[in-house]
Amino acid sequence: MHSHALQYDGQPAELVLAHDITDRLQAEAALRHSEAEFRGNRPSQASGACMADAER
């Protein structure tokens, strides 16, 4: 949220700007939940992926 003091019709006024961050907060919560499920709720569990080239 931001606000700026200004004059409107010769009177002091405040211009206030607000941004709805609901979607961002919900996406962050969903990501935390997904990561916790991936780790099996055990942060020390090792995870990884391996790629192999059968022609070598």
Q: Please summarize the sheet with the most strands.
A: 2 strands, antiparallel
Question: What does the radius of gyration come to?
Answer: 25 Å
**Order of adjacent strands in the largest pleated sheet:** 1-2
Secondary-structure element series: EEH
Low-pLDDT windows of residues: none
Task: Enumerate how many helices there are, as a single number.
Answer: 1
Helix content: 25-40%
Query: Mean of residue pLDDT?
Result: 86
Distance between the termini: 58 Å
Q: Into which percentage range does the β-strand content fall?
A: 25-35%
Oligomeric organization of the protein chains: single chain
Written description of the protein model:
The chain has 56 residues and is α+β, with helices and mostly antiparallel strands. It has a domain of 38 residues. Helix content is 32%, strand content 25%. It contains one helix and two strands, in the order ββα. It has a two-stranded antiparallel ribbon with strand order 1-2. A hairpin with a 2-residue loop joins strand 1 and strand 2. The longest helix is centred in the middle third of the chain and has 18 residues. The protein is elongated and about 80 Å long. The model has no long low-confidence stretch (mean pLDDT 86).
